[in-house]
Amino acid sequence: MTVSADTTAGDEPPAVAAIRTGSASSMPAADHRDRLVVAMAELLAEQGYASVTVTDVVARARVSKRTFYQHFTDREECLLATYRVVAEGPLHMIAQAAESAAGSGLSLREEIASVTGAYLAAMAEHPLLTRAMLTEPGSTGPAGRSARREVMRRFADQLVALAAGVGSRSGGRPLPPALAQALVGGINELVLAAVESADREGVAPADIAAEILALRDTVTDLAVAVLARRD
Predict the structure, then answer these.
(1) How far is CA 170 from the centre of its chain?
(2) Which of 8, 31, 142, 157 shows the smallest number of beta carbons within 10 Å?
(3) Cβ 20 vs Cβ 125: under 8 Å
(4) Which domain holds residue 18?
(5) For 131-142, what is the mean pLDDT?
């Protein structure tokens, strides 16, 4: 599966939908790469990257090791491919929310709240996977840091485009790319603080999801302050 430069509100790619809905078993057997990516995502949520082996991934995906190495050179490359695919979920939901809000007569804050709510809902769907995606790729060295910057840039680019649309309708200001990157980084840190509660003994995924969703007002306030700023 390839990741497009721009995410629209159209149909979700199959691997993204399978990860989001937990429907990996319904994926066509011939979609080997997607099956491997979905398997890696499931295992990351269950046990963390350090414990995942290629043997685990191929067993979950129900493919051979030979098939794995036809698509990925090693476990790390599979992880980073999974990271890029998982990022498509929130990007897709943001695009859908923005499309729904456009032309609806909402205020600046209401329109931003619909978008931030969609983003947080996507992150809360699978909180243990969200934790893995926020922490694991950057620990794999230069390739992981590069993948993380790529995904952060895609979120920032989407925010720039969304801000242009919101601003034209609701009086918000254009969002410079550097400021968009800072906003994405700040929001991710808030989400990371919420998902790190999973490290506390006895915390259920539903409780982590609730902590993520509880960030909506804070994230909305932050985004509105940036878009309504006075230079």
Answers:
(1) 27
(2) 142
(3) yes
(4) 14-227
(5) 89
Cβ partners under 8 Å of residue 23, min gap 6: 17
Reported residue count of the chain is 231
The residues, ordered by sequence, that sit 6+ positions from 119 with a Cβ below 8 Å of its Cβ are 90, 93, 94, 97, 187, 219
User: Strand, coil or helix: what is 35?
Assistant: helix
pLDDT at res. 143: 93
SS3 state of residue 56:
helix
User: In this structure, is residue 58 part of a structural domain?
Assistant: yes
Q: What value does the CA radius of gyration of the chain take, rounded to a whole number of Å?
A: 18
- Whether 9 is in a domain gets the answer no
Q: What's the whole-model pTM score? A: 0.85
**For position 83, which CATH number holds?**
1.10.357.10
Residue keyed to tokens 């057997």: 29
Total structural domains within the chain: 1
Residue 205, CA atoms < 13 Å, CB-side half-sphere: 11
Higher-scoring residue by pLDDT: 107, 70: 70
| Among candidate residues 22, 13, 14, 69, the one with its CA nearest the CA of residue 45 | 22
Distance CA 29, CA 207 (A): 35
